[in-house]
Sequence to fold (522 residues):
Amino acid sequence: MRQQSRKQITVRGKVVGGTRPLICLPLVAREMAALCHEASELAALQPDMLEWRVDAFSGAEDVALCLSVLHELRAIIGEIPLIFTCRLDREGGLQHLRQESRLTLLLRAMESGYVDLVDIELCNEREFIEKIGARAKALGVKLIFSYHNFHETPGKEFLAAKLAEAEKTGADIAKIAVMPKDYHDVLTLLSATNTARNGQVGIPIITISMGEAGRISRLAGGLFGSDITFGAGRESSAPGQMAFHELKTGMALLYGKEYQR
Amino acid sequence: MRQQSRKQITVRGKVVGGTRPLICLPLVAREMAALCHEASELAALQPDMLEWRVDAFSGAEDVALCLSVLHELRAIIGEIPLIFTCRLDREGGLQHLRQESRLTLLLRAMESGYVDLVDIELCNEREFIEKIGARAKALGVKLIFSYHNFHETPGKEFLAAKLAEAEKTGADIAKIAVMPKDYHDVLTLLSATNTARNGQVGIPIITISMGEAGRISRLAGGLFGSDITFGAGRESSAPGQMAFHELKTGMALLYGKEYQR
Fold:
């Protein structure tokens, strides 16, 4: 039995950090019609969560458009928890957005009431993080503070420290996603996960070893402490994501029948 | 892609230490009729290997009977490679056999020509190991030298050293199976596996973290270097073994479609 998080959170009835890891699918369409179609397809799969990767959306600079998209999305996905993510280009984002646009977009998205969680990179300026953090707390939106490295896997201590830093900065969930060069790096990520879960990190965590070698972390990471895994719905949003039905098949073997359909 | 072994071996056409980990199923029936039935059922599943756990057999002290069983088994299983294992009781064996009976049984079994591999615990006396080793080399039977610990998971260096010791002692395949108390211990086993495969151990290896927590090692151990995984056919022979069809389902996700039926 996996070790649960000491500070579980519940979002629209879904427990993050509990007995079982959750499955989240990313929405990555470029245009509104395609995005709504994607949301409708993925919602039908009944994942535990959805994430709108707004950095993949062609209209990401148009705040009013994004808000009307959010309105549509919520109507389509019903009670499925939604993460709102405008990934920085230097941490894997799909387009460059001006910092001011990002800030306004994030604040308006949280205020809309359609969004349950936002994902913010720890490498943002302190002021940016504080503004988002304060507004999120006031609105009851949950905060994911994240670290991504598409080039390498830093050492175990660095990774565990990043998770601890996210908690210290006020996150409800801490996230790291790093690129392995071999299976040793995959073990480093899993080991940092296990250390964080059993040590100083009390909040739920999301840890990912990306790419082909890291696929095992998307399936088995939950055993070592990762609380959410990202699968590919229609398209993947990061290298190594497994298709939703594969993820469910594998997770049924590791965590029990509740993943079966 | 997993790192292959530097010294692959081929047994009846099956490559141990190659691009994909093999699946072995144990035969653990107590009586001859049940054993033949079990062999017939398991052979029909077409596993990569079968292992006769003769220590589970009620007639294990009767060498002549065991040889006639072997004759029957080979007729039933055809060209499936067969491991002959008379596990020591203090390393998980299911009955106590006198050392002399074990020695005679192992030598006669190897001489019968029905057996492709034998599994011998490293903790046996040096003279015992040397006698078996010399006869195996002369007959072309492959040697698995093994270490089992049903109480705990020793440190990573100890485990990697056990695998190296098996190779130095003349094994064709080195095996360790240890019991985890938590997921940290599971990572220790996987890490020792990865270190051995990428370091000083050139022969194929089998590494297992047993029990419920260790199940992931039976599925994913091959990524880190383990070359054979043991599944449960009709019954399991050690704690944590997954059913054959579950193992195949999971391995198809990790290693490719050749595991699908």
About this structure: The longest strand of chain B covers residues 142-149. Chain B touches chain A through 26 residues (CB under 8 Å). Chain B has one domain: 9-248.
